[in-house]
Amino acid sequence: MLGNIKLTSFIYNASGAQCTTKNHLDELSRSPYVGAVLTKSCTIEPREGNEHPRYSDDGFGSINSNGLCNEGYKFYGSWRPPVDGVRKPYIISVAGPTQSDTITILTSDELRSCDAVELNTSCPNIESNDGGHLAYNSNDFYEYLRIIMEATGRTIVPYGLKLPPFWFPEQFDNTIDNVLNEFNPSFITCCNSLPNGLFFDSALGQPDIKPKNGFGGVGGRYLKPISLANVAQFKRRNVRCSIVGCGGVSTGRDVREYEQVGASAVQIGTELMRNGVDVFEAIYNEYRYGKK
Ligand code: DHB
Hints:
By secondary structure, this protein is an alpha/beta fold. It has 9 helices and 15 strands. The longest helix has 15 residues, at about 140-150. The protein is globular, with a radius of gyration of 18 Å.
């Protein structure tokens, strides 16, 4: 369960992984092992994103600087499951990236077609007043959400917040006190990629990806101990909302670990990029019936 939303499986896709186009969304919809369909973070207008290569996988984890390539919120608002799809929650990830764009999207008629919104408050394109990451500064984070909630009349329920990776105890305390207890999201997703990592190809003498001098968000197994800790840290503090784990899940055992430390659901990103939608069947069976 994500708040009051009943998922059809404990696992579903992470935003950004194979969920940008109609074909991607249709494919996720057709798999009975996928508990919800979550979209790529959307903006007002469609975006091509950054130059290629902008995604790389070194076999252990991934790096990306996709640049918010997406089809625009009107497309995601008008997508409907294919007739042979499985009825499951449809969640639209909203990036903005500016505050006023976020408000435009959240108050649009198109957004009414979804079951929930995952508000991406950890996208590298949303910068706080001091140039850092919005959600790393809980005062900025509070102010950002206060204005959005006022403008939308708090009508965007149910919604969740996609959080960045946190490290220090006070970041969990401050986020709960200043943000979660104030705005009561239905869920939080822990966590977005680790910002500004670097994968470097020594044979070529250059970074794996082209945009931003090769710096990008690191996901996959590199991220797992961090996101697992983030779930556990929020759970220990008895947050009122559901917690979704996201980071480095490729086996049923990974899913169980997230569940055991407090996750109500788990998202899969890098492994889905690597092996396609079939990973859900394998991981679901391992999770449900043991092994791995
Ligand atoms: C992108 C990357 C992110 O980590 C995110 O949260 C949103 C968008 C991107 O580069 O497309």
